[in-house]
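Why do we bother with a discrete structure alphabet at all? Because it lets us treat a fold like text: something you can write down, compare, and reason about line by line. To make this less abstract, here is a complete entry for Chromosomal replication initiator protein DnaA. Read it the way you would read a sentence in a foreign language you are learning: slowly, and without expecting to understand everything at once.
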Amino acid sequence: MSVTANSVWKNCLAFIKDNIQPQAFKTWFEPIKPIKLSENALSIQVPSKFFYEWLEEHYVKLLKVALTKELGESAKLVYIIRMENTYGNKEPFTEKIPSSNRGAMAAQEMDVPIKSKNPELRNPFVIPGIRNIKIESQLNPNYNFDNFLEGDSNRLARSAGMAVANKPGGTSFNPLLVFGGVGLGKTHLAHAIGVEIKDKYPERTVLYISAEKFTQQYIESVKKNTRNDFIHFYQLIDVLIIDDVQFLSGKSGTQDVFFHIFNHLHQNGKQVILTSDKAPVDMQDIEQRLLSRFKWGLSAELQSPDYETRISILKNKLYRDGVEIPEDIIEYVAKHIKTNIRELEGAIISLIAQSTLNKREVTIELAQQVVEKFVKNTKREVSIDYIQKVVSDYFEMDVATLQSKTRKRHIVQARQLAMFFAKKFTKASLASIGSQIGKRDHATVLHACKTVDNLAETDKQFRKYIDDLTKKFS
Ligand code: ADP
Ligand code: MG
């Protein structure tokens, strides 16, 4: 009998039912729908965020036991949450009233343990020698959840971020690693989590720092012989947010020090939030032990926003800036700028600027000029869609066939070639390539790349496919 999400979940339910009260079973387990089983991860859909939090709080152990029985030690559970309060396109736009800009974040005082070896513990953010440790969270209050619009592309990351903000250090998402390409909202989301935590738990010490600045501080501390102070300082933080950890690659000293800080925080139930432009599997020159820590919690991807989300983001931005421009122009911009939210915002800002400076009406023609500049200025990357199209055409099949589940050899080969070229010509992660090419996982993509490499060496016909296709892409 083949194992499916349904069959696994059915067995889990049988086990769970034997172990809890009938009423609790009815309330908390019957409404769950098994959605997907991939590798050892079972995805279940729960009706709301509250529901998911309740499960995590009360039944996570039971769920783990049940799932381990079915899928073995490496079993994973993934929640799919139906959001109650979405910014999707179902509600009229006028209902999306954002909260007004927040005030600056107050500085947080931190109690330094009296028995600390060095009572003048140095705070790397202030002039050394200051006794009373006051740390600024370095959070930008304008990056909050209210203006981080939800869409399919960010739903998992956003709701995981919310869950972490509700219970810092108290969920299984520790560390929470948010990854995705440039301009897709990693920094915004990282701040939003911090801002939300400060709102809910003002007494907690939250610190946002870029990996780059963290590295500079560390190097400085080595120069000044204050490495221990540096470590000690970071070990006192309750919620540590490090942005762009890919910056640590190749920097073994900083990685080492971060490893110790991380362990200390994690062991003490403190929350760590990380962002990166790559999934952990794709990170290079990061020590294995650190990578394995990154994978302890949850890695959630921010993908390129779909059309509806792009529209919502644009409208929200205009609304907050108090600017009105015609619907068809918003649509035009959203249609033509697809892969980067920063550029999307940039185009609309430049459009408004052009129209006010030159006192021109915002017309489609003006929008075309502005968008064209944006699209031209950003180096055109071959898209995964385009790669799939070219490979399918070359093998005279359609894209749906290339993506299908069939194991027919020539289709499998075409699919593997598409994955190989996507890895070669785009910056997308293995996971993202897999999800775009027929909803496969990162391991499948990795395997495809290896297979293509091997065949290129051993199979002359196959070598020709690669050469032909490479020409088409360059
Ligand atoms: P990254 O750190 O991934 O490069 P940023 O967090 O700097 O991206 O986001 C780029 C811009 O896009 C920011 O101005 C941010 O506010 C905006 N942005 C990203 N995602 C969203 C979203 N879901 N809703 C609204 N604005 C967003
Ligand atoms: Mg960023």
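What the structure line is telling us, in plain words: The longest strand covers residues 33-38. The two ends are 47 Å apart (CA to CA).
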